[in-house]
Design a protein that fits this description.
By secondary structure, the protein is an alpha+beta fold. Helix content is 37%, strand content 26%. Helix 3 packs across helix 5 and helix 8 crosses helix 10. The chain is globular, with a radius of gyration of 23 Å.
Length: 306
């Protein structure tokens, strides 16, 4: 049963007072949202990525080390639902959506470059042909369709990610708790008359913060033909260690390779040779350590700097 409205609540003065109270409440709640702790995922900061340039792209170290982007073959379809992509003492990443490829990584890194070099507070507005040229692609009709499908895949792929500091306190947390929404790889895009307006979730700025990202030599990446070599290029850039070593089994799992280890070993040797030919690494080899096969190489720091 509806409660009758009194003459008092219908008066203009009372209505104005209610509106003023509502506006004051809204402003207070907005201020509280901005001031909430980083663990709740609202610590939004300017999208600044030092070192990113026309010659280099950037990718957060944890994203690059994980299998979120993988050297899968064209046409392969792997669906994820809260799949654990990285789990360590200070980081936990799960993801949902169709498995992303090295081609998706190119689109994503270039989109992040455009956002980082866009005037503060604005969204990148780009011509499709310029975007394709920026990632080393031609501008055929098939390429336009490929780009559009890749953009949609990125918009549909979501992450839950939580990072902690050395003392165990939360650095940031997105999607892990009911109070904080999941993080899309690409917030979305608007398209009209051959032009994209990219929507990049501003929380990515926090993940790129504190120089926790790798810089990728963009020219070298466009010269790499093999997807596994391109995947390894991202991994290599995440560590400043000159000598790097990873078990073949770990590299196989990260690559989403479903065949035998011997088949992956052959593909890995070829990829390492391609990286060595471009001067990204030197002295690649496969060693045995306590019965485990390890891939080893020397990183040439003159090519890429993280």
């Amino acid at each position: 049963m509806l409660t009758p409205i009194s003459h008092l609540t219908r008066s203009p003065a009372a209505a104005a007072k209610r509106l003023e109270d509502a506006m004051r409440f809204a402003h207070r709640k907005a201020a509280e949202a901005v001031a909430v702790s980083p663990a709740a995922g609202f610590d939004i900061r300017p999208f600044v990525v030092p070192g990113i340039s026309e010659a280099s792209r950037a990718i957060p170290n944890h994203i690059a080390r994980s299998g979120i982007f993988a050297p899968i073959r064209r046409g392969a379809s792997i669906m994820h639902k809260d799949t654990i992509f990285l789990s360590a003492r200070n980081i936990q990443i799960t993801g949902s959506g169709e498995q992303l490829s090295e081609d998706h990584a190119d689109i994503w890194m270039h989109a992040m470059y455009l956002q980082a070099t866009c005037p503060a507070g604005q969204r990148p507005i780009i011509n499709r042909a310029d975007f394709l040229r920026g990632i080393g692609r031609n501008t055929s009709g098939a390429s336009y369709q490929w780009l559009h499908e890749g953009m949609k895949d990125l918009a549909r792929f979501t992450l839950c990610i939580e990072a902690r500091r050395a003392d165990g306190s939360a650095k940031y947390s997105f999607g892990m708790h009911p109070a904080c929404r999941v993080l899309p790889m690409m917030g979305g895009f608007d398209y009209a008359d051959g032009v994209y307006t990219l929507v990049i979730d501003p929380r990515w700025a926090q993940i790129f913060g504190n120089r926790e990202y790798a810089l990728i030599d963009w020219e070298a990446r466009q010269q790499l033909r093999g997807n596994l070599a391109r995947s390894l290029q991202r991994l290599i850039a995440t560590s400043s260690d000159a000598r790097q070593r990873y078990s073949l089994q770990w590299l196989k799992d990260r690559s989403r390779h479903t065949g035998h280890l011997r088949n992956f070993r052959a593909a890995l040797i070829k990829a390492l040779g391609e990286l060595a030919d471009l001067g990204i690494i030197a002295s690649p080899e496969i060693e045995l350590e306590k019965g485990r096969e390890m891939a080893c190489w020397i990183r040439n720091t003159g090519r890429e700097t993280s």
